## 1
Amino acid sequence: MGLVNFLAYLAIMMGIYGILSLSLNLQYGFTGLANFGQVAFFCLGAYTSTIIVLVFKIPFFFGLLGAMVVAGFFGYIISVPTANLREDYWAIATLAAAEVVRIFFLNEDWVVGGGPYQGGSFGIGGIPQPLRSLFSASTYPFFYLAIVLVCLFATYIVINAITRAPFGRVIKSIRTGDNLPQVLGKNVKRFRMKVMAIGGSFGGMAGCLWAHYHGFVSPNQFLPLETFIIWAMVIVGGKANNKGAILGAVIILIFYNSTRFLKDYLPIEEVTLASLRMVAIGILIVAAMLFMKEGLIKEKKITY
């Protein structure tokens, strides 16, 4: 039963990170936005849903919607002053924005309405899981997996529709530079802001699903390293290809979770093993960029 539970956990994580990978792929793969702050949306979604459901006793569905709205709004806000920046400055600005979000939740210690939420560096526990009382401990992971897969499928359908629509043609032209879309009369800044908002909202969805599955959130779970892992998924799977983004999430998570068992066979400390795991993922990214520059699944060229 232990193996079955582990596989259910792994599948849930694949679904959640698949949503994150799809959202980053929309921003970077299709639009060319070097978003190094993807973890900010993940963090905001987790905390927003936690506050809505745990403190205000509002059902999970509204926590999910709230997470998407807040994360999407944050993506829109941070793109207002940065939308006209060059790619390298954009990366620095988004990375800084993500750290601002994490440090805010790390240092705030207020209590909402005398409720159970205190936050701060100790994190928040006791986050309720949707419809938990209807299932046993052995069957609930499969129910939650179904929720995650529905959200992943919805994310894929929406982003796929967006990138195949006229909106998708514009953002793909932005990826090659500002000159072409500007000549065609397109407001480049506005399109970038919309993409950041849409991608951010799906990142918030992933954060909500992650928080309610684990039942605990802490600012130290949303370090910049998380963004690095999501980038690895997009690069290895294939940028500007939604199926590739999901495949990348599957491969990276299989690799990331399977290597933890090496401590049972090799005389390596857990801290050292964790560091080596990230080094190995970095090597995997370099190999993909050298030998598979377009990732495992290449971008599908669509003729209009």
## 2
Amino acid sequence: MKKINFKSFAPHILAVLLFVIITMGYLWPLLEGKRLSQSDITQFKGMSKEIVDYRESTGKEALWTNRMFGGMPAYQISVVYSSNLIKYIDRIFHLWLPHPAGLVFFYFIGFYILLLVFRVDPKLSIIGACGFAFSSFFFIILVAGHNSQSSAIGYMPPVLAGIILCFRGKYILGGALTALFLALELNANHVQMTYYLMLTVVILGIAEFIGKYRDKKIKEFFKAIIVMVVALVLALGTNITNLWSTYEYGKYTTRGKSELTNNMANKTSGLDRDYATDWSYGKWETFTLLIPNYMGGGSENLGTNSNTYKALIEKGYPKAQAEKAVKGLPTYWGAQPFTSGPVYAGAVMCFLFILGLFIVKGKYKWWLLSATILSFFLAWGRNMMWFTNIFFDYVPGYNKFRSVSFTLVIAELCIPILAMLALGKLFDKNVLKEVKLKALKYSSIITISLIVVFGLIGSMFFNYVVDKDNEYVTRGYFPDWFLTALQSDRPGLMVADSIRSLIFILITAILLWLLTIDKIKNKTIVIIAIIALVIIDMWTVNKRYLNSDNFVASSKVKTPYTPTEADLMIMQDKTIDYRVYNLTVSPFNDAGTSYFHNSIGGYHGAKLKRYQELIENQISKNNMNVLNMLNTRYFIVPDSLRNPVAQRNPKALGNVWFVNEYKLVANADSELTALSSFNPATTAIIDKRFETSVSKYQNTFDSASVIKLESYQPNNLIYKSKTAKDQLAVFSEIYYDKGWNVYVDGKIAPYFRANYVLRSMIVPAGEHKIEWKFEPSVYYTGEKVSLAFNILLILMVVGGVFMELRNSRKKLNEAAVKPKSS
């Protein structure tokens, strides 16, 4: 029996070590015990506080929280799906490195696996892995705290690797890897990134179908599809609890269809068009893939050579103050409302991508080019609205996602793949030298011309002014002279980075040309040089956005919020379950208040649709009747010195109350409008669809009736009632019938919606225990199904790898005993 050649693993072991060194070298503050400060994770700490506290005290999942927007499911906040065993495999792939090093490491290793499947040399695969991993967007989202998005992006390449193996006829190994990595992709829980991966796979499938059809191998295509369908089912099954609950909940969130009929031209079956396309990439802005500061970057540090610095000095500002003032200025002048930084794919990678258009032949080139162009068109959003509308109206699921500029992740995936296929051809001895030189010539001319024409010469034809500049002046952020100086610095950023990209491309082109004409004999030297160029190019750009300044003491990350005097005063109120409205922050983009109190505001991208409509139509207009029905007992407002102070609202209606009467309305429009002029203490507004729920109620209001909240848990509320007659009760609890059940003395009872977002029921006469329980069947049923699929998936992966190793060893043994031909 032929032994396994462990030396063949050496290049891969060295690659892994190199990726760890690069990762920890970039994130070196982690070695000092510091942690990355991430704004969204800080918000997460606030929004998940009640859920985490409940888990730690009971060992169970709350599945609901009342800390945000009056109350909402916890599915997209913080839920532990204990049946999903593959989360332990995720930790293995991240090598248990400190956060976010594990995510960055897998950027590298995931793409390295994909290139190996493409049969790219391991040394060249290291270049590609560096080019992919250092895409600026991937580091910018880490600063923001988009960890699930980062994880989903990291798993995109290995999912593609498994799919490509399937199309190549490696059904067992390909199916096992597709199932595993797709399960991990779904486990990352960023549906938007998974959706963009799906678009990429669809285009790949079309390319494969055309290729197989031409080669008369259509049966092999459908065999691969069947294997992938099985892998998909396994991946979905392992994550069924989260996916099912998200699907169910999604229909009632801002991602779902509104029942309101106003402004129908702007509405879709998902997000409104305006809202979904807020972050649309400008057409010219697409050049940031090649030139990072083409649109001014994000908030850049201009330095002491800038016009802004000189203007400050001329106005008499001390040097130290001027140096501080020119840091983090809004240099961005693109089409988006603002941005944290550009989508930069690397000058070297872009050059090699264009090289691939000339030297790479076949289906993969057309797949990668088509997917890249599609990502451009979709990223332009409202700047190419006719195309965007096609996807909003006819492509299932597309209108559920915001920030269309995120589609550029497809380009960031495809560009380094084609770049490395091109480099592989350039290093291939079987490719004619004339073909290589011709491809190098054309790609160099095109790339350099793009930079010179649109970066250097083109810089003279923009005015570098955006609408937001006027806002800086009118709000008193900047004086006119300061803004003028800032605008005059923007062209310099474009020109400087154009020259920068030009230098990297020229050096790369010259190296490859010298190698091709045999002036450089050692390929390893060129490979090392290109690795260095890619890392230097992209590392230095990323350091503009993720650097040592973004790291803080670990204690600050663990406990990100400190209570104000207003918070401390409110927390002295030990009454069960009331709400707070914090007007010292942007209340509906803030989770800090939720860290300490049940808030009518919050921070989340998928709040309930009806609550968002209540915000837009009533709360934002300071309708006190609505605020009272939401049991808003405290307002946090600024005092004369802008310090937060707490004010008690004596008219807050409490947790529950009986009303004198109800008013039936025709539909959602009428229901929302009726809230503008009603007294919630005496009247309940009820949609006509719930008419049968109140048809037998006789309006027998009894002022002596009592109902009171006795016990509070986020998913379990116990009330005691004492009434002489049946009473109509309105609970200041958010209506969500996909999980909430009410029990009267242990027996389930009916309830319905009132006042657009609240729960209501007929409380029977007598003394009763009324208990609300959140017990969504999607969670409890889903967990059982998920466990079964997890076990099946693990067995399939282990079996698939075992069979592949056995088949490989069998082939090696057959080759060893095969007689040599004379």
## 3
Amino acid sequence: MRLHTDLHTHSTASGHAYSTVAELARSASAAALDLIAVTDHGPACPGAPHEWHFLNLKVLPSVLDGVRILKGIEANPVPDSDNGLDMSDEFLGRLDFVAVGFHPGTGYDDSTLSERTDALLRLMESPYVDMITHPGNPSFSLDAQAVCEAAVERGVIVELNNGSFEPSMSRARDTAGEWEFARAAAETGALVAITSDAHFHLHVGRFDHALAVAAEVGIAEEQVVSRDAATVLDHLQGRRERPRLEMGGVWDSTRWPAGRS
């Protein structure tokens, strides 16, 4: 399977990633990708940017070096907000893409599997939640069958995260949960995104581990919404309006602005 998009990447704004958005786009172009989502960590994550960072993503080009840029967030479930996330629905609605995943230090470190699953199922009812990230994270285990069944019902994407299988990542010490989610997604027919979770630009478009898992468990190509830009955009626009999707225009960084020499 040849993938042409990467729906989970991080820039320096996340606080523990090491590349700019321009570098992510250049690497995506070099990897022959048509689209990436820039999904920096939501405000509750230690080291993450203020919510104003996400409001101002409109200044980023919608196309950079020939690559479509979705301006998004990897929001955090939190137990003490009105919508259960670390950003309001008003602000989430202005973003092109909203991923959601559990992270340390955001309020669920001492929770139970049942508490986390119930919280996530409630969040998945929101039209603003587009994708669930690294759902097999061993530090935040979930009921894979219940989550994947809800994903089918609500049109939410289940991520198969290549980083979860990379030896340099802490999650790779225990991949049983990721395998469980991959099998549940295959069995239920849930929409899947195979992503890099790149925290350095040279990792953008790296899918080898996740592709091998998808093939082994029998995830069908038509389930993989991240296979090309048209499929991604059709799915996202079918779920809700994306008011800033075209904002920012096209920028070819290989050319000087008019009047410069």
## 4
Amino acid sequence: MARYFLRRIGLLLLTVALTSLIVFVITQYLPGDVCRIILGREAGDAAVADCRVDLGLDDPLPVQYFRWLANFAQGDWGTSYSVKAEIFPVVMQRTRNSLMLAAVTLVMAVPLSILLGVLAGLNENKGVDHVISVGSLAVVGLPEFVTGIVLIQLFAFKWKLFPANSSIRVETPFWEALPMLILPALTATLVLLAYIARLTRAGVVEELKQPYVRTATLKGLPRRMVIFKHVLRNALLPTVTVLAISFGWLISGLIVVENVFNYPGLGRLLAFAIDRRDLPLLQAVTMITVVGYALANLLADMAYAWLNPRIRLE
């Protein structure tokens, strides 16, 4: 198990390193000039040239990349071009907010989706299966902003259960912010619901047809033991992959949800950086997202090894 874990750590580091190179190269070739944006369109060529020298943008790209990567690894993420503030504390605060929202979403989405998927799989082609499949697809078919507005109308304005605005203050404690996280988390949950539920259903249906299930049943094992101890351990393997990918999406991909609820997460910060062509801020947010995806996939690999020991032995 230790060797398996070390291999996955090495793969994670390689993935982050390669992705950092891709991120840097792509951001360098985005349309527009950073110094023109900072100084304004009326700035002269001499002022623009001085700006490029001050920011180190006139150095060769390899020099810029390794300097940026070394500084990033040391926690020196530079200063935002647009807001003139240190990037590290800003991104860390937004990361904290996104992690809180992701945690609430996963707590709501994972048990519900897996439960619905298992119920649908155990009742293949029956009424329960049809209701769950059609209902989940109907929900996920709605755009996120429509779902968010409907939830605000119902839970905030009509029933007055949760606040409509999720604009939390800096360093707001989790339990104080929790009521403002429910509606955006529920919106994201409804997006994930169909994918996870249908994937779980497909896994359960496939595993129920395997010979080992028939053998375990003929041996007299209780059906509950067959389902929970044997079927689900194999059926949930694809679901673990989707959950790992979904975690990365929850970290910085909830741009629409965060805008609907005015939530200060990484998604809105990423959109802000792209709009202002703030390269250091854009690179920092992107790298945090990459690291989030990599760590989520590492946890998924560990879950694979726990659910199916053959994977770590191979």
